[in-house]
Backbone:
């Protein structure tokens, strides 16, 4: 739970000592494009330590699907039942993101997952950072955001499904391990 830092104003959504992960979601467009809006210049800036990964989630609204935000929160909450401190921290971080269980009906819209892709944000990856502007941003320019077309990002793709995330690269180290520890093992 400590790694989920988006609610506390950090530059990346999840941060570990060896990597950080920025999470973006998009809905399917009629032309098939997967576009992600990057809200500020720090969002894809290199982390202080380790590598940066971008998780791209592609979804479509689907009345017959079974994926809702409320159900996801329920599943995570159930998985944390043996870890009261982490469960409380999860609930607190949700509240910082304006999630309120009293408004559950707002989070019941079902989505079908079309794609889950993990990219390494390495040299050449299409991004803007403060460093891209020699001498800083022009006077009076604030709040820069931009859109990335994921169609040009295939050379940075490291996993096309959650099953591949733990497979690791050529050295067989896990790319990202998002598993909960066994019951009773305690959380970091």
Residues:
């Amino acid at each position: 739970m400590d790694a989920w830092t988006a609610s506390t104003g950090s530059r990346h959504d999840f941060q570990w000592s060896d990597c950080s992960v920025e999470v973006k979601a998009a809905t399917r467009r009629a032309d098939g494009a997967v576009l992600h809006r990057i809200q500020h210049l720090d969002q894809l800036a290199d982390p202080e330590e380790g590598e940066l990964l971008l998780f791209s989630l592609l979804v479509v609204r689907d009345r017959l699907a079974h994926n809702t935000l409320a159900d996801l929160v329920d599943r995570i909450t159930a998985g944390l039942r043996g870890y009261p401190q982490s469960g409380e921290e999860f609930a607190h971080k949700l509240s910082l993101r304006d999630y309120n269980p009293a408004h559950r009906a707002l989070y019941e819209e079902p989505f079908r997952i079309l794609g889950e892709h993990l990219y390494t944000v390495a040299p050449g990856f299409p991004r803007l950072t403060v460093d891209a502007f020699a001498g800083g941003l022009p006077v009076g320019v604030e709040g820069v955001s931009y859109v990335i077309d994921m169609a040009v990002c295939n050379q940075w793709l490291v996993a096309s499904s959650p099953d591949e995330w733990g497979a690791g690269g050529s050295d067989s180290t896990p790319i990202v391990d998002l598993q909960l520890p066994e019951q009773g093992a305690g959380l970091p």
In short: The chain has three helices and seven strands. The longest strand covers residues 51-61.
